[in-house]
Amino acid sequence: QRLKAAVHYTVGCLCQEVEEDKDAQFTKQSIAAISEITFRQCEIFAKDLEMFARHAKRTTVTTDDVKLLARRSNSLLKYITQKSEELASSNMEQKEKKKKKSSTAKGERTPGEQEAAVTENEDSNM
Amino acid sequence: GRRSSSLQDKSLCVTGQKQMNSHKSWSLSPEEFEIWDRLYRIKEGDGIKEPILPRAQFETLENLEETPEPEEGAARELSLCEWSLWQNQPLPTALVAHSDLCHLFISAMEMMELMRHQQGDCSYERELQPHLRMEDVNIPGNKRNIPGNKR
Fold first, then answer.
1. Which of chain A's residues have a Cβ under 8 Å away from the Cβ of B142?
2. What are the start and end residues of every segment in region (Disordered) (chain A) (predicted)?
């Protein structure tokens, strides 16, 4: 329930942005419906991602698995691929910065954590 | 016994060969083409329009799919929402069961049907409101409102 509430809140905020953007109105019911669909869609995404990773004999979900979720639409795939490249390059920059500093501070995330973060990000974009 | 099975093998072979002969290429044989042309092909005089599937389009993304625009009104676009009132329960299946995604769709349609007549106040919202923890949510647009949230 707590998760659903968070999704519902976030969907509400996104819908508000769209409302301002497009000068249209969402009923509360339509926001609720989008939330519920988003919530359930996450279960399906999660299962698919797990299967895609397993299909490639991995236990960690990577951005390649996420791209497979978007394979049906060229537009979506292009968008996701761009985002993933942006993320990858910003991750590289951050790593590099950290390397320069890291003689004093050890704050690097493990690759697994990074990938999980990427997945979350892109899920919420869809 | 052994004999009948070898007979079966032979007959399988024969029919297999026959089919192989007429299916040498990927396309229809002249006989098959004749059948298709006579029974199934949609022609101008038939009074029905060519069925086409709607194209996926993203409102919020640049569209890459090129849409081979058919003449307006020459084709009948198959509708996926015309019968939405029929979609809040699983329809019969033959060999392929409904998928998870399909069940998601059905339950979403059912949920919308139940909320159709609600005015203003929303039961879904009422139910979830008490469970909301602000630490769970992080909206890019609201970032400026949350102090100490740097990226």
1. 13
2. 87-126
